[in-house]
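hi! just following up on the protien thing from before. the input was this:
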Amino acid sequence: MWNGGFRFVAGIDEAGRGALAGPVAVGAVVFPAGMSELALEGVDDSKALTPRRREHFAEVVKSLALAWAVGYSLPAEIDSLGIVWAVYLAARRALAFLGVAPDYLLLDYFTLPECELPQTALVKGDGRALSIAAASILAKVHRDELMRSYDGAFPAYGFGRHKGYGTAFHRAAVKELGLSAIHRRSFAFHDEG
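and the predicted 3d structure came back as:
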């Protein structure tokens, strides 16, 4: 995109789409045009990195980025809009918080309807574009940190461990305690046994 004349290319990716609790987070990252890929050696899809590596690279990304932001859609918004539109809303929020106006968007798998910016959706984009991988890392690190903070308010659910995803422990806690204030009521909660 830089070779095509675009200067502020924003990579965008989400974390928490399939979780049963907590917000969905969308990261947006703009690197300086022409930045060397060597500065980001080892950056990859957030799911391919250990938590320690994700946290390390989140700091690297923040230090090298021209601009970065994370936007959220809360569980009530996910329930009222549906997860797809909630992801779009979180992405628009991330773009609004960037501090620079991007002139092109690279997204992991989806495009933003109602957004007039030129954009490309890349299948497995977090493995193909460093800015998308960086956005993936920021979204995951910030969302995980938020989910760990919910442990204090809802200690019996174990949000710090599973980050709101549907583990056996999490499902058992919901079966015993019911839904917390941060659960997505529109998502399926049933006994799979």
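DSSP finds six helices and five strands in the chain.
The chain has a mean pLDDT of 93.
cheers
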